[in-house]
Amino acid sequence: xxxxxFLAPYPTSENIKEGMMQRVYAVDEMFDNKEYEKTYxxxxxxxxxxxxxxxxxxxxEMKLSIWTSLLLLLKKIxxxxxxxxxxxxxxxxxxxxxxCFFKNKNFIWDVHGIIPEEIKLAGESKIKRYYYSxxxxxxxxxxxxxxxxxxxxxxxxxxxxxxxxAEFLVYxxxxxxxxxxxxxxxxxxxxxxxxxxxxxxxxxxALMVKIIKKIIDIPNVYFYIxxxxxQEMENFFNENGLINRDxxxxxxxxxxxxDKYYRKAHYGFVLRDNVAVNNVACPTKIIEYLGYGLTCIxxxxxxxxxxxxxxxxxxxNNFEKIKLNNGKSYKNHELYCSLKTENxxxxxxxxxxx
Length: 354
Known about the structure:
By secondary structure, the chain is of the alpha/beta class. It folds into two domains: 2-171, Rossmann fold (3-Layer(aba) Sandwich); 191-340, Glycogen Phosphorylase B (Rossmann fold), CATH 3.40.50.2000. The protein has 14 helices and 14 strands. The protein has helices at 19-28, 70-79, 95-98, 115-121, 126-142, 151-160, 205-215, 230-239, 258-264, 276-279, 284-291, 306-309, 330-342, 345-353; strands spanning 2-7, 36-44, 51-56, 59-65, 82-86, 107-110, 145-148, 167-170, 191-196, 221-226, 248-251, 267-270, 295-298, 313-315.
């Protein structure tokens, strides 16, 4: 039985809503408990206490104090057959303590996102950005294999660092919420425009509301705003004069309820700025839109590899010139089907264990 260490929290029903944890869960499912002993390691900084738990057969979770358990950590990871790090956040500040002594020959870095650039974009401290920039450079030297979600992310890293010895695999993990086995559309005479997401700054909600106000009175146009921040979203719409509109629904739904809205929808808002963080990303939202044949309404088209792949979109600069219709984008649906075919779990597991 092979031993695999995941530098990440163990995925649970409570944390699975987070984007990072959805990928952790997806990767976990690729490794059978009967073939692999899986240990999840989370680092603690504010306590001298470590905790150990057997989650299920051959699956363990260790919460290790970096002050008292460094030697145990080094023993575990250097004796493992595979060490799989999810994002730089998977080791966080513990990297200062153990990477110098790390000798495992099968160290996989699943990049998830470009953390130093994300920290800068979020306006966080220069010290934090400096630390994660150094950590990224250190991990680049230690990693034997690097998994990225887009070719754009691979190009970003190769351009940023003169020499990377690690092997690369481009592997976007597709969300399990997409259910198109019985078709992907529900006929509707209305023109349905959808947004699925919360109110983070990078979502450009103010711009979305501005666009909605311009077209709110077009006959037969309906808006479905699906968010985990229902009350905040309703307040924002009300503050902007969109009060009690019959053609706007703002609701919070569970992931398995998204399907019925996606089947109705013809367009989907994904208003990301043209910055490095978005240029290399593979947003779950876009994958879902493609799966259900939605045409993307974009601020920038340079999101991950989608522009190179030729996805259907309407840029906001041309939005008012376009005649909206109640048809699906079969091109986007076929693009999703191609991605799904190309990203068989076997590709990732064979890359890791070879």
